[in-house]
Amino acid sequence: MTALLRVENVTKHYGTRIGCAEVSFELYPGEVMGIVGESGSGKTTLLNCLAGQLPCDAGRVMFDTKTSGLRDVLAMSAPERRMLARTDWAFVQQHPRDGLRMNVSAGGNVGERLMAVGARHYGEIRQAATDWLARVEIEAGRIDDRPTTFSGGMQQRLQIARNLVTGPRLVFMDEPTGGLDVSVQARLLDLLRGLVREMGLSAIVVTHDLAVVRLLADRLMVMKDGHVVESGLTDQVLDDPQHGYTQLLVSSVLQV
Amino acid sequence: MTEYTFAYLDEQTKRMIRRAILKGLAIPGYQVPFASREMPMPYGWGTGGVQVSAAVLVPCDVLKVIDQGADDTTNAVSIRRFFEKTAGVAVTQDTQAATVIQTRHRIPEAALREGQVLVYQVPIPEPLRFLEPSEVETRKMHSLEDYGLMHVKLYEDISRHGAIATAYAYPVKVEGRYVMDPSPIPKFDNPKLDMAAIQLFGAGREQRIYALPPYTKVVSLDFDDFPFEASKPDHPCGLCGAQDSYLDELIVDDDGTRMFMCSDTDFCAKRREGGS
User: Fold this and answer.
1) Nearest CA in chain A to B146
2) pTM
3) A9–chain B nearest CA distance, Å
4) What ipTM describes this predicted complex?
5) Catalytic residue (choose from B88, B202, B262, B274)
6) Residue B275 pLDDT level (bands cut at 50, 70, 90)
7) CA A115, CA B69: separation in Å to the nearest integer?
8) How big is the A-B interface in CB pairs under 8 Å?
9) Confidence category of residue B3, pLDDT binned at 50, 70, 90
């Protein structure tokens, strides 16, 4: 089996400070990779580098494109990368406000990616939007309402629908459950887990919440000060942490 | 005449504007930035159109100025007088006789021919402006041909009103490449954008010029199941009886009596003179 994404020595400096350094890993189709670490450990920097949203200083990000096999995303031209970003990739932002168009109805938000790749039949776009709203448990009656009238959890579910509507193969998620209360988080995680399994998605999930990776991720990378300090199967890393920092992280989780 | 350079603007400025116009003609639909000057009129009254007209006028030109199709409204009269005074060019109300036509929000009903120049006054040149507030982002979207958002606007129209309710400034795609705002002309005029005359668009406040060379392919955006429709009020003109011209609705007395009449005054007057 060939890797969907092969990351080689990705490095990003902010001046003399390290954003992330020499990160390498492979992600296979259908696999979910979790990236955990404390604030400022370089998780989001790494994710933005991988998604081509932040230029990195060194390294390669090889993605298995549908048409021409493994290609270095960072060396692609801007139009190619944007095409990839609206077809095979999806990016779920921590704040729904960053990922949604707040002044456009829910249906329009879901339909935007379809229209961006050339859908020109209103009825079909509307049908796809209705289907996706149902899949993320938003009532069909809310299709013409703006996201500003939605609760935080609904906005995040809408963002997920908007991203998954074109059937991407790789989803980047930056703290998808950040800022939501626990019961809403649980529902969202349940939904995400279902969608990932059902669609055979590969995903890279950045979070500081170990419960999220326990539920979603197959494999785990622990980052500290821009470096990957430990990686392995999720349960293995969480149940038998080897690195001192991972041990600290695991033991810091509050028990109710 | 001696107090002004020909057509008010100094020669260096006209040269700069002509370069922007040539670039615009070379890349149809692309918004070329230019260093817009202050004109002796407020923004929103056609400062962009006036600068473009000033740059293209030559002494032998015959100028016509229309505002919403009419030759005799304030904006049209004052701009026409402005060029009579500063350029000394001949003026006319006759669409066929004019070589340069400056217009606000209409395309004349009579078909324009090769050799004529139609200059539009444009308030907001960016078709994506109300969807994406960032200029940096809209420029990137134009350069990457990322126009899904434009259809989102039409989608929103249909979901809210049951049909594409955009009635003016209806977005078009030029030669399969740039999405362009045709200035706030009624969508009735959109099919006429594909014409024999040169079309120049000037936005003074926003400092942009764009252009359509003759016979450029201009397509109004739409959906397969909601095709573009060049709509107009379903009435004949109350003065000349024309069925196929764009109409204004006017209240003509204190009792609220309404009348539809051609917005193109020259077209209407000619039809009445012709006795049809």
Assistant:
1) A116
2) 0.86
3) 29
4) 0.86
5) B262
6) low
7) 35
8) 58
9) low
